[in-house]
Fold each of these.
Amino acid sequence: MSVSILIVDDEPDVADLFRQRFRREVREGTYVIHFAGSGEEALGKLADGVRPELIVLLSDINMPGMDGLGLLREVKQRHAELPVIMVTAYGDDERRRKASEYGAAEFVTKPVDFDLLKQHLQQLPPPHLRAPA
Amino acid sequence: MATPEPPTESTTANTGVDAVAARENELAVLRRELNESLQQQAATAEALRAISRSSFNLQKVLETLLSAAADLCSADNSYIYLRHGDSYWLAACGGFSSDVEEFLKQRAIEPGRDTLVARTALEGRIIHIPDVLADPEYTYREAQSRGGFRTVLGIPMVRDGMPMGVLSLSRATVSPFTDKQIALVSTFADQAVIAIHTVRLFDEVQARTQELEKSLEQQTATADILRVISQSPSDVTPVLEAVAEAAVKFCGASDAQVALRDGDAWFVGTHQGPVGAILGTRRPLTRATAPGRAIVDATMVHMPDLDSLDPAEFSEARQYGAQLGFKAVLAAPMLRDGAAVGAISLRRSTPGPFNDRQIALLEAFADQAVIAVENVRMFNETKEALEQQTATAEILRAISQSPIDVQPVLDAVVKAALRFCGATDAVVVLREGDGAVFAAHEGPLVPAPGSSLPLNRETAPGRAILDGRTCHFPDIPSLDPVEFATAHRLAAAQGFRAAVSAPLLRKGVAIGSVALRKAELGPFTPRQIELLETFAAQAVIAIENVRLFTELRESLEYQTATANVIQIISRSTFDLEPVLQTLADTALRLCEAEMGFIVRREDEVFRVVTAAGSTPETLKDARDYQQYQRAYPLTVDRGSVTGRIALEKRAVQIDDVSVDPEYRLTQASMLGKIRTQMGAPLMREGSLIGTIILSRQKVQPFTDRQVDLLRTFADQAVIAIENTRLLTEQREALERQTATAQVLQVINESPGDLTPVFEAMLERAVGLGEAAFGIMNVYEDGEFRAVALRGVPDGLIDQWAAAPRPSARNALTRMVNGEDVVHIDDLAAYETYQAGDLRTRALVEIGGARSLLAVALRKEGAFLGSITVYRQEVRPFSDKQISLLQNFASQGVIAIDNARLLEQIRQRQAELRVTFDNMGDGVAMFDADLRLAAWNRNFQEIMGLPEDRLAERPRYSEYLHMLAERGEFGTEGIKAELASRLENTDRELRLERTRSDGTVIEVRRNAVPGGGFVLIYSDVTERKRAEAEIRAARDTAEAALGQLKAAQANLVQSEKMASLGQLTAGIAHEIKNPLNFVNNFAGLSVELLAEIREAAGPVFAQLDQDKRAEIDETMALITGNLAKIAEHGRRADGIVKSMLSHSRGGTGDWQAADINALIEEALNLAYHGARAQDKNFNITLERDLGPAARPIEVVPQDVTRVFLNLFGNGFYAANKRRLAGTEAGFRPLLRVSTRDLGETVEIKVRDNGAGIPEEIRAKLFQPFFTTKPTGEGTGLGLSISYDIVTQQHGGTIEVESELGAFTEFTVRLPRSRRIAPAERTG
């Protein structure tokens, strides 16, 4: 049974990177990868509903328009149960603190250690087991 | 005398053949024996008799004994040798011819075996030689042949075991002595011993007695001498005479003399005896005479026979001996403290030595003579000291008794000098100017007190003064007649022939001298001279005392006088005369003058204004002099003291005006009987205003001190004159100011009307100008118009009216032509009068005017009018009066001007009203009571207020209510608005109001001086709109500018290495993202390739080998490329990471660390790092790690990073220079030093690289700036180091470098963390 991963980043190549890194999982149908170029787009996609069931949202922090932290707040207001992993090149304490405060599940710094990321993903509860907010 | 028996051999007893015969024989023997015994007894008795008889004559006894012995023993010869020391000498003999006796007498015999005596003496027993010719040991052949003896007998003479001599008998034939004879002779020998001993005892007693007698005599003599000494304590002569007498008496001399030493000479002091003597004459001290030698050598000199002396060495002694008749001399030195003060000598007319006793005695006499001489000397010294003390005491008494007068002291000095210095007379000479005067005199020589002595080196006193040393002329007639001409002249005139003078020295300078003069020739003794010098010193003390006392007294007098003068100056504020009089009186008194004058300057001449005299007579003389001078004022030339002072600007003295060739005031000085004159200048601000002069009617120049004193009086006179001048000026100024003020008041009180002003002015002008009348004219359109008259005599104006226009030289015309002041001393003598000008004639003849003063009223060159005042006598107006009149003229001008201005103001006011009404703004004025006072038309229109309401002149509050009623202020808060407006109406107010109709008005309220204010209303609607537009535009522009500035500031900030953080981080992140892609995709591509290889493996296997190989190769290339991409990506990532760590700042922990340990560690790391990179790298490391060992609080890892950086750079720079290879023998060097600076630690890192150019040095700490080739440095090392040191640690980092020499980085880190600014701000 497939689950979706929504990746939010203003860099389009991030989508390619993730698709290629997760190509096996994609090929095997473990994950379906969705991509949004901005926070607003991501919120739109969430509102429209993502199929299959979304297991995690990965978001960059530095983005034009709504930044990653803003997106995190919005998402947590609307979909409190959805795990959000922040992925950023800025590993500073301030951002870490805010991310944690807003309810991020993880804080991953770039360059992304995909092996580690995959481990995180595997530990995420399946969507149907998520406690409703 | 007994007949000698024939010598017999020793007899033996007969064997009695014939008993009878034997008996007879025996009887005969007995008889003979008896006979012999009798003879022997007789001889002995004779000997004893001889002994007793000739108790004093041993010789006689011995001869008697010998004679008896020879008789009894039938000897041919008999003799006695006596021992003297070790030798035996013939003492007595019998039976020898005189020549044999003489022979024997002259030969001493030593103990031995060669002669009888010698052998007897040697063996100490009786020696009997039957035949000397048969005795082999006997060798005294000469004596034997002369004496002819054969059988000899020697008996030793012994007493108390000591050999005394030998008694011998001899026979001319060989005939030995019998035992009896031998025994007999032995008794004689014993008797001789007794006799000799007796005689010796007797002699000893005799000698002792004699000695005692002599000793007694000597002691008596000594006692005599001592008595003489005690009787004549002050006179040595009697003592020496007694000594000489005693010496003659006790020393067995025919004559004695005492010689005394006097320096290098000696002379005979006393003489006693028949030998001639040369008394008193001084003779040079040589060793050629006995006394001389005794004195020089300080030893006894004994000359037993002058004739035997070496004629060369003792020529003098021999000469005196021959001359005076003596042959032997003994001289004993008179020794005091080892040196001879003289000698006492004994002389004899016959040659021969003096014995020991005499010598000893003479020594004793010499000692006594010394005692006597010494006594006398001490006595004399004591006496002299006493005398000197007495003299000193007398002088001191004189000093103490006359503290203010030196004369008694000088008199005492000369008296004492004369009394104690053994002179004919004594004088004191004092220096006075270039000469000297006799100040004191004592003695019978021609007295000369008061008379002068030329001060030159031709006299003793002169020399003493000039040389500052005592001068001694023992023999003036013998002095050089040219060099000592004065001394010769004075000596001849006053009758002295020797002189000595001691200088009176004060502070090394001779102020005079004291001199002793003698009528007879001869030197003064050192003692007299010494005493004279003492007196001189005392005289100086006295003079000094008197001088000090006098100075004190003068100073006191002077102060009192000054106080008096000052008192007078302060008392007589306006009246100068008494002040000057007091000054002149005081000056002449204190300077001991007879007349005093104060002279004032009047332009180019000087006049005596004050005269003073010490007595009524001299005062009269002084006044005569002044009177005369009045007619002949003094001029600036050398003809008078005042004239000279004017030329020289300093004090001047003329010692004697009657002989001064340049002095000209002969008439005046005769009137004043002036001889010596001295004066000082009165100077004010560098210019001469007068002089003060002192005069004496005799020639007696003033002393320097008096000149000084006069100068101070001059100063006081200047002060007094100045004071009076100032006071007078003040008073006059006050008068003028009062007048001016009055006139000004009039001007003020009548602003539009000039007439009262002119009248007031003229009234004061006439009054203060001491004029009879005055006229004030105004000049308009070429005409004069009288505007004020004061005291003008009747008829004068009428006459003028008839007169034609004033002539060219008329005062008024002259002023029109440009003169400001016309001053005519006497109109009657003036040219216009002379020329018959009618106006002038009218003035003089009708008005009685004589002196005229006219001043012009002139404004900016234009002639406006004049003030003229007239006196009815010839008395010129003073400068002050002229200036006063000019002052009034100026005020007249002002008044005229004021009147004109007032008129102009009135006109302007009218114009202003029109302007006011036509102003664009609305204007309303409120007066001090805050009532509406005035408004213009626009006000009424803008505010739309009805005319009638305004005409009521509402109060400000009513006015505001009026506006409020009309809705002018809107609806809200009107009360508060009004209240605030009503407060502080004297304060300026400015506000804008948008009215209900949308128009905007500006209201300004300006306070008016003296109360009230002006309200100005302007319609500013249009303006406001335009302003709003402009403001908007401006705001936009400002915002843009602000942004620009911010951007610029940011840029500047970015430029600065301290603010690297944000920029770097931003850039780093921006780079990091694409880098991530590069790395990621590169990695992915490798994976993908592997997947292709895997997936396409079977397909590839089907391909032919070439294709497969090509594909494999291509794939390998791709893989390789990807690896390269990944590698370079990682490199870039490394750079980015370091940038990020930089931007993040230090993250390490603060610790207390040992800076030196950190440096060592970093140095090691850097060195090995460099070696790892380049095997050929080498460098000399120098460490000078100072006592910075105290822990320092740092972030060790960051500080280490800084050090690594600095060391790495240093290594690089030094090594680069080595690699450049241009300097042979260059050795790279890095020197690290630390130093403890207390609060901070200093670290210096110095390399000997090529240095950093000036232009680069500034960029050194900028990020990304590097001098290394691409890839070798990031350009961040120093930038990071900078941040670590300055930002993180609050320290400093500086660089110093010299091209081609060195680069040195200096890092200073604070010891403790709290100083770091990063901590304070972060």
Amino acid sequence: MKLPFMLSCKSATQLMEKAHTVGLTRKEKWQLWMHTKLCDACRQYERQSRFLEQLFQRYLGMQNPRSPAPPDDKLEARILQKLKERS
Amino acid sequence: MMTETDANQELTTWVHLYARDLYYWALQKVSDSGLAEDLVQETFLVAAEKMHTFQQRSQPRTWLLGILKHKIADHYRATLQKVPTLSLSPEDLSAFFGANDRWRKETRPEAWDAQEELMDNQAFILVFEECLNKLSAMMNACIRLKFLAEKKAAEICQELGVSSTNYWQLLHRAKLQLRACLEQSWFRH
């Protein structure tokens, strides 16, 4: 059964993204809340979407604890060469 | 005031101390070894020009990272400027949603095992990066730029000349694709 005020899964997941970007109206907030309350798949999606955001934040953002780089003398030599050519 | 010889010596020391580190950092952001090296090289060239503005009390690594960050962000801006604004509009989502715009049976999200522990799992992060690179160049650049430049979505939209509606629809699509790729290459592997 489809209730007229119920969002589709497509709209619900779109609204989650809209919420981050421009925010939701009261009606949209209520609709989204209602939908995720009833839809297990969209609850999972929301959780996974938050996880993706955390990954973006951590791996694409400025703070980034990357494991130490293996030595590469050639890389350094090439950069020093470039610096020399400059002058 | 540093003399030029001093500055050159200092710079050489920095290359030995930080070049590899910067390179690996850049590699993570751009996923292309040639490009990462070019960007690091350019970073040191900029540093050489601006050596006189370097405050002795600041950390050289932080200062260099700042330059590198701008270089990478400029690279993604240039990528995005090359694509017509039209391609930033949402596409068909019927691969994910079927009748009545409900999840298709094959794409219906189910819980991911041990999701929280994956944040530090190197093997998983590699798969995540691969999946990220499978997105269209434009989507990939959009996401990377947003997180690298640490800007609010609204500012990024303005900068890229995208409407905010197109922007969140774009992110929605990117996440759907990324999810599908991770499921295929990791969770159901």
